[in-house]
Fold each of these.
Amino acid sequence: MRIALPHDLGKDEVRRRLKERSHEIADHIPGGMASVDTEWQGDDLMRLSVNAMGQSITGDIEVFDSELVFQIALPPALSFVRPMIEGAIRSSGQKMLTKS
């Protein structure tokens, strides 16, 4: 699943906000029982691993000049929640970008 969030902040500012707020990602996952691990792979790519309700989801967040792109590997067992996950990423991702 690919989700792009446009921005006009510049790469440096987006990276700064993501690095400062990556610990908040779990707060945006419903149920309050998620654990999230992040790891930067260079300047513009953050690897993401989310564990919740016995399921594991991995993905990448890549910073581009005018958009932030989430690539999420959704297991087949969770394909039915794709619209909900996409909506949460769009909503929460925009909130993380708009906070200064």
Amino acid sequence: MTGAALAVLAALAAQPAPAETPEDRVARAPFGDVTAVETWLADNPDEAAEHRRAAYADLCEAHGRASRYREAHLACAAVLALSPSPSPGALQSTAFWRALADAPPLAVTGQVDAPLTPHWTNMGLIDVTVDGRSMPWAVDTGAEVSVLSESQAADLGVRLLGDDLSISGSTPGVAAGRIGLIDRLRIGEAELRNLPVFVLPDAALTVPSMGPLPPILGMTALYPFEHVAFLDGGTHLRLGFAEDAVPPDQGAQMTWNPAGFDVVITLESGGELDLHLDTGSNETEFHEPLAMERLSQAEQRRIAGATRTSFGVTGSVETQVSTVSDLSVRLGDGRCTLARVVLSQNRANAQGRAGMDLVRACGSVRLDFASMRAQAF
């Protein structure tokens, strides 16, 4: 079962770009840094529309992550202006940032050092306090934006903005909801102000026969801390501690993708895969055609068939997949053994998806959005 990870920004999937574009530097740029892409746009006013469109898509994503909403909207609008036939996803993303254009930026103070309680979805829950009321929220690194149901938003007094919007989710289809703002909330010793959330009908956040999902804390709430650490087998979360920094010459590379960020894992064969890190999913999955090029013969002999049902904010879907058991991978210097990895056709805007099972298998994982490095230990 996968979590309810949103792909709000996945709509602006990267376009093909020539070798001279700053694509690689943008993908590895520290949180909020847009220097490379802005310089390229300024220096290449006559470049082909498809390449400038890709650069503006990168710019929109970077500004949106850093809660520079007006700048994100302008960059998204430039994507539309350069698109002969804008995709529904590009229109969705532009509308999303337009609704937030006048909202104040997210402000974060303090640090978080708090336990994560397992949820039946396999996500970790952390206590969040809004207006004196505490409730557990799921920490979902696959969700670019935090998510609430309508009833949860009403209970917490969320201030709604604009009209209904439709977004893409982790399963096929779209979900209609509204953008809201939480003026102030506390997590541990940290305070967050002006947190944007996406409010969906209760039914969209209810898993049939299982029940409603908790509120989801997305990555826009975590990025500003820069240092994110899942500790003790994913049972503890630490945010904003300098001792969790990963130096640029250590760990594994992290890169931005349209749905969030990837981590590079290394297989026993020495082959590498860029995986979208999604703690809203309880399974790690590899894009099968790419994985088959990198798995050793011994690992390929352990492949078997399976049926999987995935849940997301746009519904559920059942798929036939292959699995490989007892797979050992490295994340930086740490070695992690996964009981099972799914092989599927889902690329997750990368070369697969790393779920909460990878975090637990690794023991502890540090994510550094200043150096763009990840380390298991």
Amino acid sequence: MNTSTFASTKTNTSTTSSSIKLSDTAELGGRVLLSSLFVLSGLSKITAYAATMAYMSSLGVPNVLLPAVIATELLGGLAIAFGWKTRVAAFLLAGFSLLTALVAHTNFADQIQMIMFLKNVSIAGGFLLLTARGAGRISLDSKLH
């Protein structure tokens, strides 16, 4: 009886350890995937600054906001990827994603724009989950606390 209890406990512990490692890796992977869009978008706005200003103007967004948009995407994306100040960065990027959806993607007669709107709303949902749950164990937040 003691042997079977020990074997059962050992199996459960082993399974739990594997699940924790998998969830830690999944959290890191999820953060990197979510943030990659923002980091790459911020970098592309820097390399195509004039074209981005023209696009923002066509949407009625003041050009003076472009540096703030770039900083939000680039720094916010890096913060999420590294898991630094994750809850704050995720909350801000959720708001940024929703605002972008409302400003740039409301022409629902165009199916691409509707998909872009829903993509932004879905990304905001992912960021809200990060806001609630935090970065996980493989993060600067975890190491600094």
